[in-house]
Specification:
Blueprint (H helix, E strand, L loop, with lengths): L5 E5 L2 H12 L3 E4 L3 E4 L3 E5 L1 H5 L14 E6 L2 H9 L5 E8 L5 E6 L5 E6 L1 H10 L4 H8 L3 H8 L4
Parallel strand pairs: 1-4, 5-8
Antiparallel strand pairs: 2-3, 3-4, 6-7, 7-8
């Protein structure tokens, strides 16, 4: 057995597809009409309750119990693009966690939470550029020193 993908229930598959293409540059791998598989392992499923034989009202809006996560190499630029679009519904603006990763969270058209954060390698590089040592960076980010060193030294 192996994991295949995440599937999210959507009200309008074309609207959701347009959103993910616009904001996350996602490409269609397979379009089956009610179901669209995107490259990278995300599927958009319209008529989800019907497919499962469940009552339509059982598909909950804003359940706040999961999120899709995206890494971003230039979070400030991405945030500025989002801020220019009044249709974007925010979960929260840019915030920085104690491990120094900066993230934003927004909703997609069906109110799934999307986290967009700096990749941890970008966080390591930012901390090093701010004058932190490798040891400090590993401690602050709670990542193994060997991993931080490998990232900074450009090792796989």
């Amino acid at each position: 057995m192996r994991y295949q993908s995440a599937l999210i229930a959507v009200k309008d598959v074309k609207k959701s597809l347009a959103f993910y293409q616009k904001w996350f540059d996602m490409e269609v791998e397979v379009d089956l009409g009610w179901n669209i598989g995107l490259k990278g392992g995300l599927s958009l499923q319209e008529h989800f309750a019907e497919l499962l034989g469940l009552p339509e009202e059982s598909v909950v809006d804003k359940p706040h119990n999961m999120e899709l996560y995206f890494d971003c190499e230039n979070l400030d630029e991405f945030e500025q693009k989002l801020l220019r679009d009044p249709a974007i519904e925010w979960v929260h603006p840019l915030k920085e966690y104690p491990w120094k990763q900066r993230v934003i969270r927004i909703y997609d058209p069906d109110h799934h939470i999307l986290e967009v954060g700096e990749s941890m390698p970008m966080v390591f590089k930012r901390l090093i550029a701010q004058g932190h040592t490798l040891d400090d960076t590993a401690r602050i980010t709670a990542h193994p020193l060997a991993y931080v060193r490998a990232v900074i030294e450009g090792q796989p």
